[in-house]
Write a structure and sequence with these properties.
With 288 residues, the protein is α/β, with parallel strands linked by helices. It has 15 helices and 9 strands. It starts with 7 loop residues before the first strand and ends with a helix.
Length: 288
């Protein structure tokens, strides 16, 4: 585990590509250390954006946050990540998780056997990176690998579940902790560091304005729907209510989702306030 404290930004890929690229450039110019771009199925494709960003930035780490083994083959994903790693001079971070309803349901996929699928994804991706044969990959002579690129490809795991975070502690370089209420961070980080003290990328959602609050409000149902029952119990909302709201949200009606995520619930799910107030809360989260 590195003791270095890094700062960064996670962005949902629903904006025009030009805006996403500008966000990477602005992040580097403002002194941030890393930029995470979500992989949300039919939204903007993150690896293409990160590849473009790799040739117009010099320093910032470029991270997929996070892809999944149901929509992407691990060997092809690893070669894509390694290509961006080469483009960027060793700044790519491959983030992987089990995926959620937002990314999988538009394609009719369910996260079946998520722990074994994530484990297999990482094993195959590592085999590609290290030019090492495994059951599902036999490296040809023309394959890209870490030696060609010149630096090791970092792999992070992003998940809300205990089993996958414990898996990350065993096989990953770090965990991407996001898409969950801050009151769960301690528990999740504990699972992720149960075997080894791996790195933690802590990314709570934040809203600095009324516009941002209302933009975030309906989207908060996804993390609750895919999260543990204990989180739903704490906020007094059922999985059935959330599923109904999610179905309507996919169809373009966000009214039920907005009514479920009251101000009280929203205040527990994301950081809300001024830049200074949220900065203080972030500092407290890091300290804890």
């Amino acid at each position: 585990m590195t003791a270095e404290l890094r700062t960064g930004l996670w962005v949902f890929p629903d904006r025009p590509v030009g805006e996403l690229l500008q966000a990477v450039l602005d992040s580097e110019r403002q002194g941030l250390d890393e930029f995470w771009l979500g992989d949300e199925g039919p939204a903007r494709e993150p690896f293409s954006v990160l590849a473009a960003a790799s040739v117009v930035t010099d320093r910032i780490r470029l991270c997929s946050g996070v892809t999944n083994p149901y929509l992407r083959h691990p060997a092809l994903t690893a070669s894509t990540a390694l290509t961006i790693h080469e483009f960027s001079g060793g700044r790519m971070v491959l983030g992987v998780g089990a995926g959620g309803d937002m990314s999988l349901q538009p394609f009719g996929f369910d996260a079946v056997n998520p722990v074994s699928r994530v484990r297999s994804f990482i094993e195959i991706a590592r085999s590609v990176a290290q030019r090492r044969a495994c059951d599902e990959y036999k490296p040809p002579s023309y394959a890209i690998d870490e030696n060609i690129v010149g630096s090791r490809l970092t792999v992070f795991v992003g998940s809300r579940s205990e089993k996958i975070n414990r898996l990350a502690s065993e096989v990953a370089d770090g965990v991407f902790v996001a898409g969950m209420p801050p009151f769960r961070f301690g528990e999740v980080i504990g699972w992720a560091r149960s075997r080894r003290p791996i790195d933690v990328a802590l990314y709570p959602s934040a809203a600095f304005s009324d516009e941002a609050i209302e933009c975030n409000r309906p989207q908060m149902i996804w993390g609750l729907l895919n999260g543990p029952q204990a989180a739903r119990d704490r906020l007094g909302v059922s999985a059935e209510e959330l599923q109904q709201a999610a179905d309507e949200l996919r169809s373009g009606d966000d009214s039920r989702a907005r009514s479920l995520i009251t101000d009280r619930r929203l205040g527990e799910l994301i950081l809300v306030g001024s830049v200074e107030e949220i900065g203080c809360r972030l500092a407290a989260l890091v300290q804890s």
